[in-house]
Design brief:
- This protein is mostly helical and 187 residues long.
- The protein folds into two domains: 1-71; 72-176, no CATH class.
- Helices cover 79% and strands 0% of the residues.
- The longest helix is centred in the last third of the chain and has 30 residues, at 146-175.
Length: 187
């Protein structure tokens, strides 16, 4: 839970700053929070995960464009770009290189058949692609205000992620292999 909250640190500060000011101040706060997060990890001697670097790069790029051009559409694209990047990496590594991103990340903790790993990886990639599309719809369809988009970004996308994780946990519980399953049976 501590790691989960730490990973949400820039998003939480973005939301709070938006409530007290505007999208531009919130964007600047999120950028500073992302840099502070990396510095904290570095100063405490922990390993900086690739996801932290990717998230920082995207927030600095899209946040910087938002502030420099004074155009909030760039920061509204940020969740979509991040999610689509995750989805593309997961599908690309699976389809092009026959490598399973989730198996690489979770293989020491979870035991699944090769088919199970493939389905798990594909379902996460599909989730990220759909979530990115939903973000674009809420941000740019004209049906929602900027404030509603901020709420969706913070609570809607997070709620969808939590529901998806719960569904995946149930699915995993039904498809996990016992630790003592021979490798031949894992295919």
């Amino acid at each position: 839970m501590k790691k989960f909250l730490f990973d949400l640190f820039p998003l939480i500060l973005f939301f709070v700053a938006y409530r007290f000011s505007d999208i531009y101040v919130a964007t600047a706060v999120a950028m500073v929070a992302g840099v502070a997060q990396i510095l904290y990890i570095k100063l405490t001697g922990q390993v900086i995960e690739t996801m932290h670097w990717v998230n920082l790069g995207i927030i600095v790029l899209f946040g910087g464009a938002t502030l420099y051009l004074h155009d909030e559409s760039f920061i509204k694209w940020k969740p979509t770009v991040l999610y689509w990047l995750f989805g593309a990496v997961m599908l690309g590594s699976q389809w092009l290189f026959k490598r399973n991103t989730l198996q690489k990340l979770l293989g020491q903790k979870v035991s699944l058949t090769d088919t199970g790993w493939s389905r798990l990886n594909s379902s996460w990639a599909l989730f990220f692609i759909i979530a990115g599309g939903l973000n674009l719809f809420v941000a740019f369809s004209g049906w929602f205000t900027e404030s509603q988009w901020v709420n969706f970004k913070v609570f809607g996308l997070m709620g969808l992620l939590i529901l998806f994780v719960l569904a995946q946990s149930v699915w995993l519980g039904k498809h996990m292999l016992p630790d003592d399953t021979p490798h031949e049976e894992k295919k």
